[in-house]
Amino acid sequence: MDNVTQREEKVSLAIEIAIKVGLVAMVVYLSYLIAKPFMAIVVWGVIIAVAISPLVDSIEKRLGHRKKIIIAITVAVIAALVLPAYALSGKTFETSQNIMHAMKEGNITIPPPTEKVKEWPVIGEKAYTFWDNASHNLRKTLAPFSDEIKKGVTTLLSSLGGLIGTILMFVGSMIIAAVFLIGSEGAEKFYRAISRRIMGDKGDEWATLSTLTVRSVVMGVIGVAVIQATLALIGMALMGVPLAMVWAIVIMFLTIIQVPALLIIGPVIAYVFSQGSGTAEIIFAIYMIIVGASDGVLKPILMGRGVDVPMLVILIGAIGGMMLMGMIGLFVGAVIFALAYTLFGFWMNEAAEEEEETPAEEA
Predict the structure, then answer these.
(1) DSSP-derived 3-state class of residue 102
(2) Which positions ≥6 away from 253 have C-beta within 8 Å?
(3) Are residues 322 and 222 in the same domain?
(4) SS3 of 278, please?
(5) If we measure between CA atoms, which residue out of 349, 76, 50, 75 comes closest to residue 207?
(6) In this structure, are 254 and 138 located in the same domain?
(7) What is the pTM of this model?
(8) In the predicted model, what is the mean pLDDT of residues 145-155?
(9) 326/338 Cα distance (integer angstroms)
């Protein structure tokens, strides 16, 4: 009888535990579904807050008024994002309309190529012939590629829409980062409490390492990419390179995924030399080559101390993040995956230290 009673109590306890676990799991899952649309923007806001926190602290020590400093930085960053994007979208839309109208009217003209185009390696002769034919009769030259052109225009407009959406996400993330920075003391205490709950005595070290990793990747990878793209944009704008903003964005993305910016800079230099070969073009070529190679100097300066993240980790994180979350995932993915890699190494080192201490205690 006692065995039957004990068995019934165990069954009742198991059912009760299963119901409670099921309810908790359901609440967690529903909470995840509710928070999912906002996760990328919030995570990026946290990353921005961690990255620029030292800058805010440094300015606060000199000037005081922490809230005013944070608001000023937020407004400046949002303006730097929104104003160029607005100008680019408006100019792109206006230019596309003008091109379509001109092509329908048949009065669009292309200047003939110079003899320098023939000197381009590999594609020189073919490029010169195609360009020359287009300068005489653009519609006839492009007729075989009409379907590809339509697809390309559609893709360009879609990419432009995605870029605008990403910029709006950046704006939202910047506002969230400002909120975290204003309440930084409470946020830091909360994160350290979670770290201690997960890692015990190693919680504070875990939290510090997480902060260093985020700052390292943001400054050493994303920061370098933004600097290179900005410098390249200045040079291309001064030389009147078409779609300079687009090429600068491509350079930034390539640099984040650890692909040399010279893949874009090289053709741009070739284009500029196809328009002339004077002193300005030579200076531009030297300047752009320096910009393309500047990451080798900037990364050691901007990378955080004590954090060494392999290039492959950044590459996988950036590409995987972009596939998962779109353009903003290019930034978030690189940081999150680098953080996961660093914390995994921290966990493995801790396990190794425990194994070394155990034999010593037994001896």
Answers:
(1) helix
(2) 225, 330
(3) yes
(4) coil
(5) 50
(6) no
(7) 0.61
(8) 69
(9) 18
- Determine the straight-line distance between the first and last CA of the chain, rounded to whole angstroms: 52
Determine the Cα–Cα distance for residues 182 and 56; give it in Å rounded to an integer. Answer: 10
Q: For residues 213 and 304, is the Cβ–Cβ distance under 8 A?
A: yes
Instruction: Calculate ∠ Cα 323-90-262, nearest 5°.
Output: 50
**322: domain range?**
194-349
What one-letter code names the amino acid at 251?
Answer: I
Angle made by CA atoms 145, 146, 147, in degrees to the nearest 5: 95
Are 77 and 211 found together in one domain? Answer: no
Residue 33 forms part of a structural domain: no
pLDDT at residue number 139: 67
Tell me the angle at which helices 262-274 and 279-293 cross, rounded to the nearest 10 degrees.
180
What letters, b where the CB count within 10 A reaches 16 and e where it falls short, cover 302-339?
bbbeebebeeebbbbbbbbbbeebebbbbbbbbbbbbb
> Over the chain, what is the mean pLDDT?
77
Assign 113 to helix, strand or coil. Answer: coil
Asked if the structure places residue 164 within a domain, the reply is: yes
52 by DSSP, 3-state: which? helix
- Residue 2 reports pLDDT greater than 60: yes
